[in-house]
Design brief:
The protein is α/β, with parallel strands linked by helices. The chain has helices at residues 26-37, 65-72, 87-97, 110-115, 127-150, 159-167, 184-197, 258-277, 290-296, 301-312, 341-344, 362-370; strands spanning 19-22, 44-46, 56-57, 60-63, 78-81, 105-106, 156-157, 179-183, 202-205, 217-221, 225-228, 243-252, 322-325, 337-339, 346-351, 354-359, 388-392. The protein is 35% helix and 19% strand. Helix 8 crosses helix 9 (290-296) and helix 8 (258-277) runs antiparallel to helix 10.
Length: 393
């Protein structure tokens, strides 16, 4: 917890107007706790979800955007948008629909905002930048796919990329990344092959080989930068290149059983230990195993990743009925466990001017992820999910 001597403590901007935290979800609660550490308590939460409105969270009422406008007018309060993932979506709603000035909207990670002399906020990505970003990502995906095809390595499109292939035959127009899923065994083989024959201008690495706080497999294009609005990407010395997100899954014996709960706990402990090692002490304050993470933080990252991978892959040489995703971010609850068959059978789907692999049962997978996935979201929800402060392609 920050001490009183912190340069952010009781920052003048915190005292200008009442502060409202937008979103009463988990990320909003974390933003609330960040404000308390800075010596100020927000006036209330605001949330667009009807089932949250009228309730109380952490002792504060949750109001609707309409009530927010009635109570404070357009510029009577500063609104902290508490979620990086939906920052642009909420920003669009509050500025375009409710007319709230940009100066009254604060981004998540309030310490970054207050520390920067220019009160740094995520940039608004233009249509031209989005097209250039998607073009670069498609080029990267082509290289990734060709290597996998040559060496018979299985992968599938995931998340918004899979949704884009089914609904748009390519990118969702406002999507700013590519998501891939692979079995850990296949991903390890892919990383080893890339060390020998990856084309110039690209690099691939596992978590244990990456000198940063990130815990994930990555496929990156050299010379590019996509710097997120995050403590990690804005840390001194970081150089976040544009990458394809690779989500790995592992064989699971009994879904939700004792072994999977143990694996989840170990994964969370290691994720937190690595983040603490790199100086992000307060990011996972809800971790009940924080003491163990602090103890383990003295180990080199390679050793920590070795422990993590050994525990998560314990069943990967056996045939199991289920597979599970163990998050590369700290996660209190893991509900991403599926029948193995979901990813065994694959089909080719058109994606822009290429074809890429997808789960044969993509319909059930997309319904799990998005519900009625063919229904377009409201116009103000059609925004990127990554908050970006620097983009070089």
């Amino acid at each position: 917890m920050w001490k009183k001597r912190s340069p952010y403590f009781r920052h003048p901007k915190l005292l200008e107007k009442p502060i409202v935290v937008y979103t009463a979800s988990k990320s909003g609660m974390i933003a609330y706790e960040d404000l308390l550490r800075l010596g100020v308590s927000p006036a209330c939460f605001c949330d667009g979800s009807p089932h949250r409105q009228g309730t109380t969270v952490m002792g504060l009422e949750v109001i609707s955007p309409e009530t927010l406008l009635e109570r404070y007018g357009r510029d009577g309060a500063n609104i902290l948008i508490g979620t990086p993932q939906f920052y642009y979506e909420i920003y669009n709603q509050l500025t375009a629909h409710f007319g709230i000035p940009d100066d009254n909207l604060w981004p998540p990670k309030i310490e970054i905002f207050l520390k920067s002399e220019c009160t740094l906020k995520p940039m608004i990505v233009t249509d031209e930048q989005m097209k250039a970003l998607q073009s670069t990502l498609l080029e990267m995906m082509g290289v990734f796919h060709d290597i996998c095809e040559k060496h018979k390595i299985k992968y599938c499109l995931n998340g918004g990329t899979l949704l884009g292939a089914v609904r748009h035959k390519g990118f969702i127009p406002w999507d700013d990344d590519i998501d891939i899923i692979m079995h850990r065994n296949d991903c390890e083989r892919f990383i080893e092959i890339c060390k020998k024959e990856l084309p110039d201008g690209y690099r691939a690495s596992a978590s244990r080989e990456d000198d940063s706080c990130f815990i994930r497999y990555s496929f990156r294009k050299k010379g590019t930068i996509r710097r997120m609005y995050s403590l990690e990407d804005l840390a001194p010395g970081s150089n976040p290149e544009l990458d394809i997100d690779i989500f790995t899954y592992d064989n699971v014996a009994v879904p939700g059983g004792k072994m999977q709960r143990f694996q989840d706990a170990v994964n969370n402990i290691i994720v937190d230990a690595i983040r603490i090692r790199y100086g992000f002490e307060d990011t996972n304050a809800r971790n009940p195993f924080r003491g163990i993470s602090r103890f383990l933080r003295v180990l080199p990252k390679r050793a920590l990743c070795g422990i993590q991978e050994a525990v998560l892959s314990v069943y990967n040489k056996k045939e199991t009925e289920y597979v599970g995703f163990f998050w590369h971010d700290y996660q209190l609850i893991n509900n991403m466990t599926f029948k193995t068959n979901l990813f065994k059978e694959r089909v080719n789907l058109q994606f822009e001017d290429r074809e890429f692999w997808a789960p044969a049962e993509y319909d059930s997978f997309l319904k799990f992820l998005f519900g009625d996935y063919m229904q377009l979201p409201s116009e103000w929800r059609r925004t990127p999910h990554h908050s970006v402060v620097e983009l070089v392609l």
